[in-house]
Amino acid sequence: MRPQMDLAKPCSILSSKTTIIPSPVGDLYCAAADGAVTHILYSPDVLPDSGTSDPVLEELRAELEEYFAGVRKTFAVPIAFNGTDHQRKVWEALLGIPYGETATYAQIASRVGSAAIAVGQAVGKNRINIVLPCHRVVGSDGSLTGYGGGLERKKTLLELERR
Hints:
Blueprint lengths: L4 E2 L10 E5 L6 E6 L2 E6 L13 H14 L10 E2 L4 H11 L7 E2 H8 L3 H9 L12 E2 L12 H12 L1
Parallel strand pairs: 1-5, 6-7
Antiparallel strand pairs: 2-3, 3-4
């Protein structure tokens, strides 16, 4: 099951409920608004814990715990992200990369009718890490290239999924 993805719905950090979810790759700074996850970030700079409960964030917490335990291979929590039409196509393609597998920027570019560099730029704008699995995108030679959370986190996530 793929997460419900509402890319047309605007999301704002200012109107979000936020929480910090501990994980094996460090604290995850998460936000939800209007019934969907809008952010899963590695940096606390923009998402302090709001201290309020939110059903979507609790669902996200449970799904992430199952994911890191090796039990969950797909996410069902609803997600919302604004972006250009091109970014949306790329993010939809990311959701199509199966658990434990990778795709190259060039492969995704071919799927969405774009250039690999434009795919890289769209992947770099992903603000819903792990659930929108940009860590599964690798260089044409299979190398671990670019990841907003750092290459060590990317390596850890890929190793988790290959177990």
